[in-house]
Amino acid sequence: MPPRRRRQATSPKSLNEAARLADRLQQAGYTKRDIARIINRDPSLVSQFYTKNKGAAFVPALREVLTAIEAGGITDLPELTAIAARHISRRTTASGTRARVRGKAVLITPTGTGTGRVGAQAIASGSTRLRPLIAEAARQGLRLAFTVRLAKTGYVHPSGSRTDSPGIRRDVVQRADHSEERSYGSAQTGGFDATDFARRVDAASGDVTAAVHQWLVETGRIHPDAHILHLEVRTWRPR
Known about the structure:
By secondary structure, the chain is an alpha+beta fold. It has helices at about 15-25, 30-40, 45-50, 60-70, 75-85, 120-125, 130-140, 195-205, 210-220, and strands at about 115-120, 145-150, 175, 180-185, 190-195, 230-235.
């Protein structure tokens, strides 16, 4: 059997402009997931800058973000997201009208596994795209967990506190913008009843951000004036 050929690394000269700008952002300390949050898109799209030559529509926004970082010293992701948003325009059809954006259907596997993530812009409008996921999880009687990112000062308990997230691996993710990601609920600890969270979302008029924020405040985990920067919801079927 002939030896397998090693995949050749992509030459910087062969990268498109979006990928080159993404490389510079990564050299500045940002991950592909951070870049995706800045342009308010799925992380898989950033990977496609490299593999499928995509990203031309985001070049102006990425250039402005790099200028803000390198010349303006701005590092806060929400600020960078706001800067990028001013330079991202919707695609147009051949007739010049705005192209329709394909929405993601709620996808929950037969095992009950489902995931939904939102960044700064979606959070500001209530993270409504997560509502169908939570509603479907409640309909199927699934369990639920979530991860939030806040400024470090927004949390009541220090990093790694067992009071904050008992039974969960406590090596929180710390970001360069002085924020932290912390997870609440897991398959190992049993997570939360999706039905209960669906009721909370309904009580908040469909505002998922507000429902999660209220739960964190009620349980003494964050300060009332804390702002959620990133939210991820995960579901699974209880055994």
